[in-house]
């Protein structure tokens, strides 16, 4: 049984239009994802594809005008607000994308402590600071006194403790020195080896495949492919979805081949494949109905052309 299982997750926001009229705008539709204990699953995709929305939905921190359908289960139980309240900061930890999540009025060291911390966990955190080259004085600083890279390292340190069973890391490494990126990835890998499940949300595919077991490709609010990390290699021929292949080949080291067009908005109410207008393999049927997820070659894909 997966530790975390997301099934048919859809998210819409109630927004105001002209004349104070309201409308529902769908930004995520029928997203499926699962992660097991001891596993690292990376979620990759372009900006605006819904990666951070997924993290916020799991953590229960979407804004009040968000409407959710589908199921999010943790350890076999529905993850509702009451359950989240008991798990956040203990079994489930978020490494947020924005350093603004640090309280500007509280010193860094105080923010890293919880009532459940033991002597062992204090020692672990001190060790993390040392490995990230954060001096002891950093604990006495306020967030505004940290550089962007230092703040990122502090955020990673808030989650990387042995009691955590699920870590959701939302773009944890931008602004870090390459050596610190390697250390952060090493910590996530070590936590997974100890049984922690890690959901790594990132635009950095190269970093993701260094530690991930699986990579989920997000496009326009939907997971279109979940593939073993080893499939992201060579010319990308092992990948199943045309977008996954195009995303891989767009990297400078893989040919730097641009993808024509732009990612559509889910609010447009598109009926067929969301990638159809940009895909050189699209046929009329692609624009009529959306392909259901199916398993192909140890991966999952939503594309009628996948083999």
Give a short summary of the structure.
It is built from 8 helices and 12 strands. The protein is α/β, with parallel strands linked by helices.
Report on this structure.
With 307 residues, the chain is of the alpha/beta class. The chain has a single domain (4-299), classed as P-loop containing nucleotide triphosphate hydrolases (Rossmann fold), CATH 3.40.50. It has helices spanning 51-59, 81-87, 108-111, 119-131, 148-159, 178-193, 205-211, 242-249, and strands at residues 4-16, 22-35, 40-44, 66-74, 77-78, 92-95, 166-170, 197-201, 214-219, 222-228, 294-296, 299-301. It has an eight-stranded mixed beta sheet, sandwiched between helices. The longest helix is centred in the middle third of the chain and has 16 residues, at 178-193. It is globular and about 60 Å long.
């Amino acid at each position: 049984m997966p530790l975390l299982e997301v099934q048919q997750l859809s998210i819409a926001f109630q927004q105001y239009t002209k004349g104070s009229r309201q409308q529902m705008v769908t930004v995520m539709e029928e997203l499926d994802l699962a992660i097991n204990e001891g596993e690292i699953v990376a979620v990759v995709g372009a900006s605006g594809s819904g990666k951070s929305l997924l993290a916020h939905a799991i953590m229960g921190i979407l804004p009040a005008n968000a409407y959710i359908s589908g199921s999010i289960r943790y350890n076999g139980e529905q993850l509702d607000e009451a359950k989240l309240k008991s798990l956040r900061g203990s079994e489930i930890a978020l490494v947020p994308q924005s350093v603004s999540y640090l309280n500007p009025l509280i010193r860094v060291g105080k923010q890293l402590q919880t009532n459940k911390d033991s002597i062992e966990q204090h020692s672990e955190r001190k060790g993390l600071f040392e490995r990230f080259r954060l001096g002891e004085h950093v604990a006495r600083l306020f967030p505004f006194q940290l550089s962007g890279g230092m703040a990122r390292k502090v955020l990673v340190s808030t989650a990387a403790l042995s009691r955590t069973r699920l870590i959701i890391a939302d773009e944890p490494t931008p602004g870090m020195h390459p050596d610190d990126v390697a250390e952060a990835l090493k910590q996530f890998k070590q936590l997974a080896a100890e049984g922690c499940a890690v959901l790594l949300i990132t635009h950095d595919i190269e970093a993701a495949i260094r530690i991930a077991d699986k990579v989920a490709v997000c496009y326009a609010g939907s997971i279109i492919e979940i593939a073993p990390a080893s499939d992201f290699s060579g010319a990308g021929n092992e990948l199943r979805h045309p977008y996954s292949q195009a995303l891989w080949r767009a990297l400078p080291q893989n040919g730097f081949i641009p993808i024509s067009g732009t990612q559509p908005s889910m609010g447009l109410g598109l009926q067929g494949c969301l990638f159809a207008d940009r895909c050189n393999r699209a046929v009329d049927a692609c624009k009529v109905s959306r392909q259901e997820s199916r398993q192909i070659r140890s991966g999952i894909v939503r594309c009628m052309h996948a083999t």
